[in-house]
Amino acid sequence: MLDTLRLTAEDADRLLREKEVSSAELFAAYRDAIDQRDDELHAFLHVCDDPGGEGLPLAVKDVIGTKGIPTTAGSKILESYVPVYDATVVAKAKARGLKVLGKTNTDEFAMGSSTENSAFGPSRNPWDPSRVPGGSGGGSAAAVSGGLAPWALGSDTGGSIKQPAALCGQVGLRPTYGTVSRYGVVAFASSLDQVGPVAKTVRDCAWLYSVISGRDANDSTTVDVPEVELPSSEDLKGVRIGVPKEMNDADGIEPGVRDAVRRAVDVAAGLGAAVAECSLPRSVDYGVACYYLIAPAEASANLARYDGVRYGLREDGDDFRAMVMRTRDAGFGDEPKRRIMLGAYALSAGYYEAYYGTAQKVRTVIKREHEELFERFDVLVSPTSPTVAFPIGAKADDPLAMYMNDVLTIPSCMAGLPGLNIPCGLSEGLPVGLQLIGPQLGENTLFRTAHALERALAFDFVPERLR
Amino acid sequence: MARITRDEVLHVARLARLELTDDEVARFQEQLSDILEAVSKVAELDLADVPPTAHPLEIANAWAEDEPRPCLPLDEVFANAPDRDDDYFRTPPA
What is the topology classification, in CATH, of domain A9-281+367-466? Predict the structure, then answer.
């Protein structure tokens, strides 16, 4: 009997290679786990049958296009959409033998921090089903945490991989902007969107990153990627870790979160890392404001394509304009509407320079602040989320309160930097996430640092109530 | 910072091709005002000599080879279309 809650992708791969278990048995074990626990967790929007072949199952966030498998982006406007081609990341995964297990729940168009904005209902946190799994990729994090998938793909615009991984006690990487193709992925904010892995261990995370990364002729923002090194070193000698004080003392960081992160930083020093305090004076204060101008502006342009003409929902209307407006009103939920309007406002005549133009300059300030720190440090650390998983409904009616969940994940996203979450302890019985930020293309350093910390911290990634 | 007016909400909704109900207009007027007030914080910084960043990586001119490649068969192109008339997407009259 396979214990899918504890089985890592690396373990599963070894069982397959040693013929201890067949690919079909492995796939069936995850399907059984989904049957057992997904009524409660609602991590999946669609579950697939075993396509055959040899390889590990992979859960895929439902903003990532999968040929012949519904891809809704958590929205009514794409409820009936079935892609006719695979996203590049899915094609790459399949080429390495991975099999799509199902499509995971997401806030609508990846806009949210709790999955409560999914048109198909929220996912639940495997550690405490009365709480959110984070978002927007809450389905992917909940699936891995709940033993419903060995690993998963997510997407991250301002924290949608890192924050759910933090709230569910998993490892999640938002890669350097440009390292992973977005071809075939439902676009939200194109200067920020990145696809990345969610896994139980840093090594699994690094492995899946090596599968999906690399230059793609179909996404002109992609670049050549240094060869991924699976981490094995268990010390941190020579690694210079910066602790930005604004990101570790920000308003709203819960005491239990602060304590767990401080303990992890002490452990890093014990492993030989050189740890020093540093400062990101403007990135934390201005990051969220900058993000909530740039991301909605780009979203308002990207979501213009949902017009009821070529695919997706269409509502009836006497003329073309009425059809388009009714389709969009019926098809989009509140959060996409808010962001489309916010973006259209920020881009409209008379406001463009004051809002969007200014935000782009603030983005430069944030980028430069980070670049200066990486002249002295290899890795920056902070909490990933200021809080542990919050109760479903707690922030659902207050968009601004929800936006502040991402106050610590957003700044590095604006700068195009890679960020990795690893679990570093518990607060009130719920996982606390440690965020590690690296310079552009610094993934290997993040993996090495996180792997050594993961070994030393020995966090048990299986939710306590399911052990 | 002035609050956004009802007319501005309706104007932006028209720009964004969203037909909002009266309830939505009232709710979004309130919420968008709060959000705009919060994001207006970006105006506090002195940005006189700061260039804008549109894209975090410094790459320019990502050329692709200009070679013809097969495209999707028409039946696949139309597979998700709400309405089709031969090789056209059909819509209500403009």
Answer: Amidase signature (AS) enzymes (3.90.1300)
